[in-house]
Structures are given as C-alpha cells and as structure tokens.
Amino acid sequence: MATALDPETQARLLAAQRSEITEYFIYEKLARSVKDLHNRDILRRISKDELKHHDIWKGYTGQKVQPHRWKILLYYFIARVLGITFGLKLMERGEGKAQINYGEIAKYVRAAEAISRDENEHEKKLLGLIDEERLHYVGAVIRGLNEGLVELTGAMAGLTFAFQNSGLIATTGLIIGLAMSLSLGSTEYLATKSEESGQHPLKAAAYTGFANAVTVLLLVIPYLVFDNFFTALGLMLLIAIIIIFVFSFYISVAREISLKSRFVEMASISLGIAAVTFAIGLMARTFFHIEV
C-alpha cells in the first residue's frame, strides 16, 4: 500500500505514525495499571484506535517507527500522579499530531479525513467517559484553594503592615490558616452530607482541608525564611500567582476550559483583596498606633 510521497508529506506522516504508536503504548500501559474495569475498557478501546491509525500511516510510509520511550514514561507518570483525564488530555494537546494538516494531506492520503474525524470525535467522546474520582472532587479542591488564596493573601497583606515583624506575621498566619483549614473541612463534610450528591463526605472534607492547608503553608513560608517583611510579602504574592496559574492550567486541561479567563478571574480576586487588606492594615497601624 506504500505510495510515493513528497519528502515533506512523508516526514509529516512519519511524525504522525510515531505519535500514534507512542500513544498506543501509553494507553495500553495505563489500561494495565487501572483497577476500574470501566476505565480499563475505555483505555483499551482508545489504544486500539491509536494502533489502527498507526497501521494506516504505516501503509503509506512503508516504514517501521519506534515509539518515543521518554514520552511513554512521562505521560504515564503524569497520569498516575495528576490523574488519567489530565494526563491524557495534556498528551492529546501535544505537538506530534499538530504537525499534521489533515486538509492538506487529504489531497495525497485519502484516509487522512477519516482519521481526523476519529481523533476529534470518537476519541474525545471516549476520554469524556472516563470516570475518575478526583475529578468529582474538583469543586472541593477549588473551595479549599480559593479560601486559602483569597482569605490568607488578604490576611497576610494586612498583617504585614499592621505588625511589620516576619516572625509574628508567620505565626499569626499559620494559626489563622490552619484553623481555617479545619473549619473548611468540617463545613465541607456537613454540606456534602446534607446535599446527598453521591460524594463521600469525609473525602470531600479531606480534599478541601488538604488543599487549603497546603496553600496556607506555601504562603507562610516566605515569612519564615525572610526577616524583611516587604520581601516576604512580595514572594508570598508571587507564590499565590504561581499556585493560581498551576491550578488554572490543570482545570483548563482536565475540563477543557479557557486558561486565560480562569487565571485572570482567580488572580484578580486574590490580589484585589490583598490590596484592600494591605490598606486596611496600614490604616489600623496608623489609627490604633500599633507598635510591635
């Protein structure tokens, strides 16, 4: 079935062929590792599609290609640590298939349009059917992160000008933050239990409380490291922005929503409240003559 192709088209098809066989091994490796039979079946079905596409491209290129071993290890690791849905959708965003302009190649390769439809419709639908526990609790994680970012960045900014002592700010921030984590966890437990949403109340509480506690610790660290409270404040705000970006990227991939809108919204709220409380702290120190 090998066909004479111009060098550029041949190179594109070889890249696509290698991408397909790489993804076949990733899906197969994940299918062997998951315990859920429903998810295992979906992963195997997609892996068969990838192998079928590889074989079609091979029929045109007439060459055997080796998979990207490092990609197999990388995306397998990402999927196991950060979730199958996130790992696989991140992989599908990769550049291997992006090198293919199906409209152009369809002039020379009749199967290109069918493969394009398969990639865009069938495999996306199958990925959407994966039932992953951690995605059910994304709302709980969002609440934990939002509370930590919005309330603690604001509180720390206000405490910075009110106390102007890194050690005291860190101690106060830890007490406030960890108390907030316990409070949020218990609130999430009661809310989930009363809603009868199908989620486990203890798991929802754990996701919320843990997300909040990690955020608190990351935001307090600069005040434990730097004596200069302005340096600590600047680094704390930078860490907050990094946390917002990382989580926004995760959600944008897993839920296929706009990264820019999610990031801008969260960053605007957190930094806006921090600016207001910063001013409140300054006024409190001035009006109440606080000296530490």
Structure commentary:
The protein has 292 residues and is mainly α. It has two domains: 7-131; 134-287, no CATH class. 82% of the residues lie in helices and 0% in strands. The protein is built from 13 helices and no strands. It has helices spanning 7-33, 37-61, 69-82, 84-92, 95-98, 102-105, 112-128, 133-136, 138-163, 166-195, 201-225, 229-254, 259-287. The longest helix has 30 residues, at 166-195. The protein starts with 6 loop residues before the first helix and ends in a 5-residue tail after the last helix.
Q: Which secondary structure elements does this structure contain, and how are they paired or packed?
A:
Blueprint: H1 7-33, H2 37-61, H3 69-82, H4 84-92, H5 95-98, H6 102-105, H7 112-128, H8 133-136, H9 138-163, H10 166-195, H11 201-225, H12 229-254, H13 259-287
Defining traits:
single chain, 292 residues, mainly alpha, 13 helices, elongated
Structural class: mainly alpha
Please tally the helical runs, counting DSSP H or I stretches of 4 or more residues.
Answer: 13
- The run of helices and strands is HHHHHHHHHHHHH
How far do the termini sit from each other?
Answer: 82 Å
- Domain unit count: 2
Strand content: under 5%
Number of strands: 0
User: Average pLDDT across residues?
Assistant: 79
What portion of residues is helical? Answer: over 70%
Rg estimate, integer Å? 25 Å
Reported for the largest beta sheet, the result is: none
Q: List unreliable stretches of 5+ residues.
A: none
Dominant shape: elongated
